[in-house]
From TrEMBL:
InterPro entries listed in its UniProt record: DDAH-like
Gene3D superfamilies with a match to the protein in the record: L-arginine/glycine Amidinotransferase, Chain A (3.75.10.10)
SUPFAM superfamilies: Pentein
Family: Belongs to the DDAH family.
Keywords noted in UniProt: Hydrolase
Species of origin: Sphingomonas telluris
Name of the protein in its database record: Dimethylargininase
UniProt keyword annotation of Hydrolase present: yes
Length: 257
């Protein structure tokens, strides 16, 4: 059974790092309930959910994607660009060590939310959280494992995967890249068929493929309908409270591929 690694919501979630959103009141208890429903969706898709060690004093700890990258039996421990998040990586390494061969980025910064895997290519967004030095360090680490790293450009969004995620093969076998035109230019990615989200649903660009299903945040009905029209099995999950902390559905888990 494939594994998905998560971490509990911190009671201090309202103190999270914010880059593009205005701070709003966040109900951490409601966020925790939504997170549990998210974990249930992972389990329903055939994944064993394993929680990483809790970090109650780290507001952003639930966003585990930024701390590590899972690649075919390897786990690369990353260096998040927000200084407050640096201590989270030790906890992720502790939880992942029994399951993967660990590697660590030692210089620069890379947030996992900026890493988009398409086949054996890792497209890494140059953002406010990921820098050129970190991208070069990641390239050196993953090259021996058979992966290439390509720098990607993004516009006004937090992470690359805020604006583009791989939905996977549609009913015709085409690899579909779901993207928000105001955030990411799909022409920079090879081997995909771009599909724009509805103009009024930019949050729909962040989807998570688990098994044969796509997890999509609620509030994106037209984008969900377009995906279903192409044969995707879409599961809509309410993560509205977590979205106040700039969350997407990819950022709350590390999914074994």
């Amino acid at each position: 059974m494939p594994k998905a690694f998560t971490r509990a919501v911190s009671p201090k979630l309202a103190e999270c790092e914010l880059t593009h959103l205005q701070r709003m009141p966040i109900d951490a208890q409601k966020a925790a309930s939504q997170h549990e429903a998210y974990e249930s969706a992972l389990e329903a898709s055939g994944f064993e959910v394993i929680r990483l060690p809790e970090l109650p004093h780290h507001p952003d700890g639930v966003f585990v994607e930024d701390t590590a990258l899972l690649l075919d039996g390897h786990a690369v421990i990353l260096r998040p660009g927000a200084a407050s998040r640096a201590p989270e990586t030790s906890s992720s390494a502790e939880g992942l060590a029994p399951h993967f061969e660990l590697h660590r980025i030692e210089s620069g910064h890379v947030d996992g939310g900026d890493v988009l895997r398409i086949g054996k290519t890792l497209y890494v967004g140059l953002s406010t959280r990921t820098d050129a030095e970190g991208i070069a360090a990641l390239r050196d680490i993953v090259r021996p494992t058979g992966f290439d790293v390509v720098e990607a450009k993004l516009k006004d969004c937090l992470h690359l995967k805020t604006g583009a995620t791989l939905a996977g093969p549609d009913r015709n076998g085409s690899q579909v890249l779901l993207f928000a035109p105001d955030s990411v230019d799909p022409a920079q990615f090879a081997g995909i068929e771009p599909m724009a989200v509805d103009a009024e649903e930019p949050n729909g660009a962040n989807c998570l493929r688990v098994g044969h299903q796509l997890i999509l945040p609620t509030g994106n009905p037209r984008t969900a309908a377009r995906l279903r029209d192409r044969g995707f099995q879409v599961v809509e999950i309410d993560v509205s409270e977590l979205q106040k902390a700039e969350a997407g559905v990819t950022c709350m888990s590390l999914v074994e591929s």
